[in-house]
Amino acid sequence: MNIIRRPRRLRTNAAVRALVEETTVSVNDLILPVFLVEGTRVKKEVASMPGIYRHSLDNLLEEIAYCRDLGIKTFDIFPGLAEEKKDRFATESHRPGNMYLEAIHAVKSRFPDVVVMTDVAMDPYSSDGHDGLVENGEILNDETLEILGKMALAQAQVGADILGPSDMMDGRVGYLREILDDNGFTNVAIMSYTAKYASSLYSPFRDALESAPKFGDKKTYQMNPANIKEAMIEAELDYAEGADYLMVKPAMLYLDIIKMLNDNFALPIAAYNISGEYSLIKAGAQNGWIDGQKVMLETLTSIKRAGAKIILTYFAKEFAELQRK
Ligand SMILES: NCc1[nH]cc(CCC(=O)O)c1CC(=O)O
């Protein structure tokens, strides 16, 4: 038998496999999204996200301290608000001293080396549960920008490092960049949710924050999962408007989009391995149908292989714990 090229030679043992391994996920690549709620000593598991909790600030600080010791350096904080704090205009989102702004300030004061990423979107604060201002059942674009601008500035003022506009309004990256620069926050970065699709996999996140839309869906602002071309347009716009990072969301079902943006833009590409993607894997593992840890590793590796340098993932802590062993 004369088989000249035998690819299996590079798979013979673990050392050789490690030698030729092209993609390695590191804790340096990961951002852990965390959920913040009002109160003290609150730690409530999200029913649809086993192992993920809503924390009051005191517990969140402990959680961050623990994860920081594991090597996780960046945290994306999301607020869950009581219904009575919400209104049409998301007024609470930029009220000085609100729970969210206090938390950003507290995290940055306690852990100056930690990178705090924030969420810039109306939905956690909106009585309509939408990412924009609603009028007669429509989501207004330009009026929403003004609210996002106030929210972003308030976050920058308390020490946010990276702002994450997750709303999908047109023109918001340029609008926020200008407000930040005009107020002296030239070093506050923007990680734009560039290609955010109207996915059915956000529902566990909306459970966590009780932020589901009160009517309709988000299809007039989030992208159609069937489309590739508009991701290019969104990325061109965000690049031109000054985004520092481009994000694709969700991740697992959108690896082609991650690859396309990475092939076409020199900015770091991030991917958000979202709540429903996490829940699917956890559910499969809890049923004993798949090996949760192996599927987690394969998932993160695949997202990175597709071209994401950065992965926002609820698995960050579990991954870091596994690495430490
Ligand atoms: N601004 C909304 C927002 N910011 C982050 C997520 C989802 C994150 C996840 O599912 O993990 C969503 C959900 C949505 O668009 O309804």
Automatic annotation (TrEMBL):
GO molecular function, one term: zinc ion binding
Keyword annotations of the record: Heme biosynthesis, Lyase, Magnesium, Metal-binding, Porphyrin biosynthesis
Binding site for Mg(2+): 234
GO BP: protoporphyrinogen IX biosynthetic process
Entry superkingdom: Bacteria
PROSITE patterns in alphabetical order: D_ALA_DEHYDRATASE
A Pfam match: ALAD
InterPro entries the UniProt entry points to: ALAD, ALAD_AS, Aldolase_TIM
Record field: catalytic activity: 2 5-aminolevulinate = porphobilinogen + 2 H2O + H(+)
CDD domains: ALAD_PBGS_aspartate_rich
Keyword Lyase included in the entry's annotation: yes
Annotated active site: 196, 249
Keyword Hydrolase assigned: no
GO cellular component: cytosol
Pathway: Porphyrin-containing compound metabolism; protoporphyrin-IX biosynthesis; coproporphyrinogen-III from 5-aminolevulinate: step 1/4
Enzyme class: lyase
EC number(s) given by UniProt: 4.2.1.24
Similarity annotation: Belongs to the ALAD family.
Known partners and oligomeric status: Homooctamer.
Protein name from the UniProt record: Delta-aminolevulinic acid dehydratase
High-level lineage: Bacteria, Pseudomonadati, Bacteroidota, Cytophagia, Cytophagales
